[in-house]
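Researcher: We're reviewing a set of sequences before deciding which ones to prioritize for further study. For each one, I'd like a predicted 3D structure that I can look through quickly. This is Histidine phosphatase superfamily. If possible, include the structure in token form so it fits the rest of the review sheet.
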Amino acid sequence: MTVLLTPRPTPVEKRHFKFTVVKEFLDLERLLGDGRCAIKTSGDYLKPDLQPFSGKDGHKRALKALINNNGGKESCRLVYITRHAESNHNVKSMKLGKKESFAAADHFDKEKDPSLSSSGVDQAKQLGARIANSQASEFGLPNQVHCSPLWRCVQTAGYVGANYHAPQPLSALNVKLSDKWREWKGPGQLHVSDGRSTKTILNGRIRMLNGTVGAVQMKVDFEENFTDIDEAFHDPETFINVDIRLEHALAELFEGDANCRHIVTHGRTSQSLLRVLGFQRKRREANLEDYRIWDFENAGTIVLLIRRQLRNDQCEQVKRDNKLQQEELQYINREYEQDINDGFESIQQCAAKISDKRDTWMTKLDMLQEEMQENKSVAWRHELLQKALNGTFWHGEFIVSYGHGFN
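Model: Here's the predicted structure for Histidine phosphatase superfamily, in token form for your review sheet.
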């Protein structure tokens, strides 16, 4: 039996603002239908429901009227939300198998803050051009980008922004990097690919990127207290924790005069963002909701009109969040156990049947042995991978329990 001891998650805190989608602009519920919905790089997600007024500047006048009916420009922002384009770690995961990679390979990859793949660069450029020619662009294009500091997101922001502003270039595309937009970290689930580069390395990479994106250059600002060395995400999160940090991040969209913003973030973070905006999850067994109704494909993008209002039930919200956090923690740990057991079971089956697969995983085992010299917390992965390759792993061997250390 292999037991992963996970620390308690970050305590919940008061939530000062409530953020909702103005459905008259684009109604996500209309797009959902009966099942899970994948937000793609094209389709209805860049086609607002709002009908323009007749005459000159009809789109912008219609949007202004809708904003005035929803609290005014201090309360509303037009927001594009994008998941990063395809990265190298996405490609590697597909080659190894997603569940197999999740169980073992993601945690000792040599590329700690992966770049976009060549296909991902093309995706980002094409998305920028698609946004520039979309119906959404008639209502406004972003001149401020709020971005995860992980390199795949920074690259996506640069290539997309340079291309949607190519017809009428800005002097600079303002990009603010914040750890608040990073990927979700569940107990025990921080992938190597979700760690960021140092601020020094990021600045160097950004200078090089500005030489390749085109006529529009990025002007990058780091959030206050952004450390050189990655000190974020040492405490595990439940979904409620992600909601709270995203609400802090959304509040920053309402600072300054730019009424149209662009968020570039990650897959699970995007799912949490839609939950924050009011698209609740379906119920599961044990009265727990389904977290992942919405999926974002790589470079998947949607445009929404977001309204901010003060909460009048902050204390009651904390009580509800505390209760939901306990339910979520049980659900997350149960799902994590299932995913890890499934992954190593699949590795064992493939290694027994396909020699090339076995050779690949033997190489990964050696890499993991090297990683253990610096990072003892991956020892349980080495142990389970070794058992899988020896044919002695059994499903259910891995379980999650509470502790005080980090694994």
